[in-house]
Amino acid sequence: MKKIILGFIVLFIVAIVAFIVLKGKDTYDPSKFYVEVEGKMEPGAKIDLKLPDQFDKTHTLDDDTKVIIAVFTKDAAHKVIDFLKKEPKGYLESKNAQFIADISKMPVIIRNTFALPDLQKSDYTILLIYDENLSKKFHNNKNTDKIFVIFLDNKKIKDIKYAADEKELKEILK
Length: 174
Fold this sequence. Notes:
Order of helices and strands: HEEEEHHEHEHEEH
Strand content: 15-25%
Low-confidence stretches: none
Number of helices: 6
Distance between the termini: 68 Å
Radius of gyration: 19 Å
Strand order of the largest sheet: 6-5-4-7-8
Helix content: 25-40%
Largest sheet: 5 strands, mixed
């Protein structure tokens, strides 16, 4: 009986190690992606980017993009996700908007096991920042708990507003 229990324990440990090895592998290639800001992230600066979405499809910033909604904390991300769930399908497209979420601080195994599969259930595209250096180009460690709403005209920043919750986000996006 002891050998059977010991065998199950060994199998369980092997399964856990295999799971960690498979889900803990980081497949992100930082050389493929960028966030470029001419000067500081403020009105008048030009911005360009190339980021992956939750399905690992690459996206760039189009001249037609009018709004970037960016979040840098889990709490802020959940507020935007909850907001978007209440809006009709195609809401972001109707606003010529892109939603960007910073997942750079998330451990790889958590990201691959829980976060990405959850994000892949979304009805909208979420561009992802895997690299903390790219994230800092947006916020420079200021207002990271807020929802950033960046208004653009041909990739040039017209205005930046900050929302603390869904209500403020809705008001800003009117």
